[in-house]
């Protein structure tokens, strides 16, 4: 390939694009390509056998034969039943909504980006957990917003520390957030879940300091143990005063990422704006096929099956960690979701250690990939969602050996 000529088009990209920093993802991507034999614990993918391929094939076939208008602008009647099926699913999570209260989106990612369109611009601040889902940080920065991290502990967002930070900012005249992005249930990357009391305290802070909350519930339905905790949006609705939580969900982890179906449930005052920005992106053919599939197997039936499988994968990984890890290593024990968050001794850099780990047969995601600013060097995320029991055992043993030698 010839080199880009002087004056190449990338000069014309926005500051946000040109200034985007190198990411630990780059090292991960490169090593994943050069070590295909290593067990991949770095991604948050569902396992491929989990996909309802036969059922989707039958549903797609039926739509094409009986409702070809699904391929037309405007879509088919089948797609109209999708919001109802999602509303039923979300209702079982404790958030009672009608089909009309819900905006179907092209995955949770598009939903987060659209919400950033509505709330963020240069000069505004968005708070995220530290660590958090990196794509969300990219969307926020693309809108010119400053991203500030809030500390996490074993119970998720440290709401008391957040309160101190907000009070300090108010005292010193530093910018207060417009939006706080949180993954309160089975957090990515830590696997932690925010207890109900902290959720209440977080909602108090949002009222006191007047910010909106974006609740990302990507993993919320995948609970393997313990009592469910109500979504922030459900608690918000029970409180006096205007609602300030926007709830986002996705079918990526329960049906398949490739269907690109997510949803937003937003307070009325902003939902029309969010819907308007999403209108042209409605993938009516896929929506029709998924709606047809969900008429045969409900979300709940599907989730029940998946939870059984993921529970055993999670248990397997935790047993392997217990059996293999050196004594000075810590890790979270999630009640749901896909992830275990590992803390190494200070001074061990997980990104620098990745090539050795890959050569030993395991690839993970370095913790710093999830920090909106500095930090996370001695942490790493491993996922139990894709590996077979044998692969998980092999990978955890390789990780333990690598850490020991580091
Ligand atoms: C916290 C979180 N939110 C959103 C997403 C993306 O969801 P979708 O595939 O529906 O865009 C992910 C995927 O990894 C995630 O971890």
Automatic annotation (TrEMBL):
Cofactor(s) needed: pyridoxal 5'-phosphate
Cross-referenced CDD domains: AAT_like (cd00609)
This protein's record includes keyword Transferase: yes
Ranges of residues in domain Aminotransferase class I/classII large: 39-399
Protein name: PLP-dependent aminotransferase family protein
Record organism: Saliphagus infecundisoli
A molecular-function term among this protein's GO annotations: transaminase activity
InterPro entries with a match to the protein in the record: Aminotransferase_I/II_large (IPR004839), Class-I_PLP-dep_aminotransf (IPR050859), PyrdxlP-dep_Trfase (IPR015424), PyrdxlP-dep_Trfase_major (IPR015421), PyrdxlP-dep_Trfase_small (IPR015422)
Entry keywords, A to Z: Aminotransferase, Pyridoxal phosphate, Transferase
């Amino acid at each position: 390939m010839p080199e880009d000529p002087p004056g190449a088009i990338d000069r014309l990209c926005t500051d946000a694009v040109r200034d985007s920093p190198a990411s630990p993802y780059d090292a991960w991507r490169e090593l994943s390509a050069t070590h295909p034999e290593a067990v991949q614990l770095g991604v948050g993918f569902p396992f491929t056998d989990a996909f309802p391929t036969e059922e989707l094939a039958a549903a797609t076939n039926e739509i094409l034969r009986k409702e070809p208008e699904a391929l037309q602008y405007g879509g088919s009647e089948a797609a109209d039943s999708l919001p109802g099926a999602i509303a039923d699913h979300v209702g079982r999570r404790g958030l009672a909504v009608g089909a009309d209260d819900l905006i179907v989106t092209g995955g949770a990612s598009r939903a987060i980006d659209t919400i950033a369109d509505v709330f963020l611009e240069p000069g505004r601040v968005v708070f995220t957990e530290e660590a958090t889902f990196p794509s969300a940080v990219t969307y926020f920065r693309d809108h010119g917003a400053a991203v500030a991290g809030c500390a996490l502990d074993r119970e998720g967002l440290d709401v008391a520390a957040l309160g101190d930070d907000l009070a300090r900012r108010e005292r010193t005249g530093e910018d207060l957030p417009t939006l706080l992005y949180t993954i309160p249930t089975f957090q990515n990357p830590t696997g932690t879940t925010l207890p109900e009391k902290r959720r209440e305290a977080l909602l108090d802070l949002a009222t006191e300091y007047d910010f909106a909350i974006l609740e990302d519930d990507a993993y919320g339905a995948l609970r393997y143990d313990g009592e469910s905790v109500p979504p922030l949006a459900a608690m918000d609705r029970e409180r006096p005063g205007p609602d300030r939580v926007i709830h986002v969900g996705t079918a990526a982890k329960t049906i398949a990422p490739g269907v690109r179906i997510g949803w937003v449930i937003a307070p009325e005052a902003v939902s029309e704006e969010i819907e308007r920005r999403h209108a042209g992106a409605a993938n009516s053919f896929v929506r029709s096929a998924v709606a047809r599939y969900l008429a045969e197997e409900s979300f709940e039936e599907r989730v029940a099956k998946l939870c059984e499988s993921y529970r055993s994968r999670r248990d397997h990984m935790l047993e392997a960690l217990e059996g293999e890890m050196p004594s000075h290593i810590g890790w979270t024990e999630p009640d749901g979701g896909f992830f275990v968050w590992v803390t190494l001794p200070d001074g061990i850099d997980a990104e620098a250690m990745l090539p050795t780990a890959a050569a030993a047969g395991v690839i993970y995601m370095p913790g710093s990939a999830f920090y909106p600013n500095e930090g996370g060097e001695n942490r790493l995320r491993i996922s139990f969602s894709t590996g077979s029991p044998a692969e998980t055992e092999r990978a955890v043993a390789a990780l333990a050996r690598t850490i020991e030698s580091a």
